[in-house]
């Protein structure tokens, strides 16, 4: 047999184990993992870009110059992503007689309580919904809680403009049949129906003036999402995808080495009886 053909047959024999059931399954799993990990890396890249864009929008909005609220919203208006978190001002009076509380809201320490939502009647008669902050849920939650009063008389408030809350966006179910003056979601359309007034779209989270005695507790800034974490995960998944074929090849080489060592150990044992028979003759 030609030496080249002999080497070819020897090479084929070395890798014949790849056709075994165990190695076929291992190879198919490796092949499936590579595109899966690549797709997960692209998903993390998408999340990174989303979070980075959201952080940029929030930062731009929070640092923008305050403007009168009616410059950005009006009755029936849907607050856009670019308008959300913008600092706005409004002048008027609080209508505490028609104040409501928003159930199942937490503060910065994850304590469950209420948000205080107070209609703020503007000079032109329209109503702005003002989330004055968080109060603890002390006592029975079926009763209207004791709410600290806002400043009386005409004043100017400042706050962050927010979009109407929906179940789809927040995950909070809009439960019906709640106790009097309690709601689940802040929605200007529903509040306009309840109040029988023109209500500006969205609402504001009040930042000034500060509440006396620190209650209601002011809602903190939205902060930034951890976009760099998604970037790290993206790199990690792509490194895993690159490592799969390298790991597969390492296992193949180790299997070949183990088989050749086992064959070399068997060879002296098989030749030993032949040597004994030759000596006896």
TrEMBL record:
Protein localization: Cell membrane; Membrane
Transmembrane helix found in the keyword field: yes
Similarity annotation: Belongs to the SURF1 family.
Main location: membrane
Keyword set includes ATP-binding: no
Region (Disordered): 260-281
Superkingdom of the organism of origin: Bacteria
Keyword list, A-Z: Cell membrane, Membrane, Transmembrane, Transmembrane helix
Pfam families linked: SURF1
Transmembrane segments: 23-43, 231-251
Biased composition annotated in UniProt, kind: Acidic residues: 271-281
PROSITE patterns hit by this protein: SURF1 (PS50895)
Biased composition (Basic and acidic residues): 260-269
Membrane topology: Multi-pass membrane protein
Stated name of the protein: SURF1-like protein
């Amino acid at each position: 047999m030609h030496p080249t053909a002999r080497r070819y047959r020897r090479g084929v024999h070395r890798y014949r184990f790849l056709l075994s059931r165990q190695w076929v399954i291992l190879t198919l799993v490796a092949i499936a993992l590579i595109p899966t990990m690549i797709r997960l890396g692209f998903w993390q890249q998408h999340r990174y870009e989303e979070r980075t864009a959201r952080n940029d929008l929030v930062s731009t909005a929070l640092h923008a110059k305050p403007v009168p609220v009616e410059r950005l919203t009006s009755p029936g208006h849907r607050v856009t992503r670019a308008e959300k978190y913008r600092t706005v001002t409004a002048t008027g009076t609080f209508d505490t007689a028609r104040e409501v509380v928003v159930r199942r809201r937490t503060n910065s320490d994850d304590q469950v309580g209420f948000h205080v939502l107070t209609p703020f009647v503007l000079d032109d008669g329209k109503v702005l919904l003002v989330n004055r902050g968080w109060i603890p849920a002390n006592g029975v939650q079926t009763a209207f809680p004791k709410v600290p009063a806002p400043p009386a008389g005409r004043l100017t408030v400042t706050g962050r403009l927010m979009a109407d809350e929906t179940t789809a966006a927040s995950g909070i179910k809009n439960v019906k049949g709640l106790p009097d003056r309690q709601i689940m979601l802040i929605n200007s359309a529903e509040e306009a129906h309840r109040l029988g007034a023109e209500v500006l779209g969205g609402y504001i989270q009040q930042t000034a003036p500060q509440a006396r005695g620190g209650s209601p507790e002011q809602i903190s800034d939205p902060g930034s999402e951890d976009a760099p974490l998604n970037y790290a995960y993206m790199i990690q998944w792509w490194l895993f995808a690159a490592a799969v074929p390298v790991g597969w090849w390492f296992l193949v080489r180790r299997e070949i080495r183990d088989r050749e060592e086992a064959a070399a150990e068997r060879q002296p044992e098989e030749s030993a009886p032949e040597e004994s028979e030759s000596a006896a003759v």
